[in-house]
Amino acid sequence: MKLFYAETINPRKACAVARYLNVPIDYVHVDLGKGENRTPEYLAVNPNGKVPAFEDGDLKLWEANAIMCYLARAAESDLWPGDARQIEVIRWLSWNSEHFTRHAGSLYFQNIVKPALGFGEPDEAAVKEATGFVRRFGAVLNDHLRGRKYLVGDALTVADFAVAASLPYAAKAKIPVEEFPEIMRWHARLNELPAWREPFPKQQTQAA
Ligand SMILES: N[C@@H](CCC(=O)N[C@@H](CS)C(=O)NCC(=O)O)C(=O)O
Q: What's 40's domain CATH number?
């Protein structure tokens, strides 16, 4: 199995699950700054030119959520539960892509990616809009987490890894999550996991 990644928000989810499950995997680092995600070889793995991407034999898979679910299913882990909880996990994965991390991800782009890649100053209107949406959907997440250990049932699932994806970057990306005590408490619990705190591999190969 091969996992193509960069040390950024979306690959972080797949790397965290791979580390959590202790999956024997060949990590291939893709240097986005050098355009290694746009080479013909890489586009043959992920035609979107994005990381993460994954290979298992003839299977080529992209989208971090799908890769997390694949790894969990292959390991027969309850991170991707086989029962009715699956519906709840899909609910949170969908909600997160459409609402919470969609807007937290905008702040990640405006406040972290743009300065890092020299794309200019953050767009104030985009920051204001995304901050408003994070507050609105963050309130939904905060309410749901009250009295709960994890998002779905009593156990960790891929939904926790997906919905928390932006939180390690919150301070630098100016994502206003410190306003939400339940989100902070839940994320502190995730931070107890070495796989969440330090998801990226020390050993890797370079993309061609
Ligand atoms: N929906 C995709 C998003 C992947 C994505 O946007 N990855 C970013 C890094 S976090 C990327 O590859 N950016 C490079 C580019 O767009 O050129 C997923 O969840 O896997």
A: 3.40.30.10
In sequence order, what are the residues at sequence separation of 6 or more whose Cβ sits closer than 8 angstroms to the Cβ of residue 177? 104, 134, 138, 167, 170, 183, 184, 187
Sign of CA dihedral 43, 47, 48, 54: negative
Examine the pLDDT at 122 and tell me if it is beyond 70: yes
Note whether 6 and 40 are same-domain residues: yes
Q: Letter for the amino acid at 58?
A: D
Say if residue 69's pLDDT is above 60. yes
pLDDT above 70: residue 23: yes
0.90 surpassed by pTM: yes
* pLDDT value at residue 206: 72
- Residue nearest to ligand 1 atom 1, measured at CA: 63
Q: Domain containing 143: what range?
A: 85-194
Domain shared by 46 and 92, yes or no: no
Compute the C-alpha angle 20/101/206, nearest 5°.
50
Residue nearest to atom 20 of ligand 1 (CA): 63
Q: How confident is the model at residue 131 (pLDDT cuts 50, 70, 90)?
A: very high
To the nearest whole percent, how much of the chain has pLDDT over 90? 95
Q: Say yes or no: 136 and 186 in one domain.
A: yes
User: For residue 12, which atom of ligand 1 is closest to its CA?
Assistant: 10
Question: Residue 138 belongs to a domain with what CATH number?
Answer: 1.20.1050.10
Ligand 1 probe mutation, 9, 30, 37, 51, most atoms within 8 A of CB: 51
